[in-house]
Amino acid sequence: MPQVKAIIGLGNPGGDYAETRHNAGAWLVEILARQAGTELRPEKKFLGLYAKVRLDGQELHLLEPTTFMNRSGAAVAALCQFYKIAPEELLVAHDELDIPPGAARYKQGGGHGGHNGLRDIISALGNDKGFHRLRIGIGHPGDSRQVTHYVLGRPGKAELGAIGGAIGECLATLPLAVAGDWARAMSRLHSFKG
Q1: Cα separation, 182 vs 160, whole angstroms
Q2: Which residues are annotated as a binding site?
Q3: DSSP 111-161
Q4: Which of 180, 178, 174, 179 is nearest to 188 (CA)?
Q5: Dist CA 160 CA 75 (whole Å)
Q6: If DSSP codes are grouped into helix, strand and coil, which group holds residue 98?
Q7: Band of the pLDDT at 2, cuts 50, 70, 90?
Q8: Torsion, Cα of 39, 27, 74, 85 (10° steps)
Q9: Each residue's pLDDT tens digit, 103-124
Q10: Which residues are annotated as a binding site for tRNA?
Q11: How far apart (Å, rounded) are the C-alpha atoms in residues 136 and 24?
């Protein structure tokens, strides 16, 4: 299986959105950059914040698109074209309504599940759905009519702690995932209960 060459953290740009549930994927990439001793910097050609890091000796491209969520695909496609990265070499970190706070799951391929960031990335990659996803649980408001307000809302203290715990476990399993050892990465992450 191809190794992961880039990790994309989805979110919306700007201070108004920085602490909202929809930015859980962006939080992961920001923390990963900090742990690697660097920070994400604006990169116009990738329509986002970018850094190159090493994780267990492997070079990784980190990208947080600064387009809005529903336009994430252009940033991902620009990065892939510039560095010749295939969809199956991507790991896209995003918030997931169908998973409770304190849990996260790896997945390869599949549809967008109503997530506008994934929908736009799939479209921008020529309908190739083969990229890996890191689904960070934020829970569901219980009513589909409240989803937009919910994902653009800030989590409470306990919920934020649970999401942070899951992100910490995601970061601990990333070296396995990036090296292509998906079975071990999934086994550890999927058994985590934050």
Answers
A1: 27
A2: 17, 68, 70, 116
A3: --TT-HHHHHHHHHTTT---SEEEEEE----SSGGGHHHHHTSPP-HHHHH
A4: 174
A5: 27
A6: coil
A7: confident
A8: 70
A9: 999 999 999 998 999 999 999 9
A10: 17, 68, 70, 116
A11: 7
Distance CA 169, CA 148 (A): 27
Domains of the chain are 6-191 (3.40.50.1470)
Catalytic (active site) residue 22: yes
At 59-104, the pLDDT tens digits run: 999 999 999 999 999 999 999 999 999 999 999 999 999 999 999 9
Q: Which two tokens stand for residue 45?
A: 């050609």
The residue from 22, 61, 115, 132 that is catalytic is 22
Q: What single DSSP character describes residue 110?
A: -
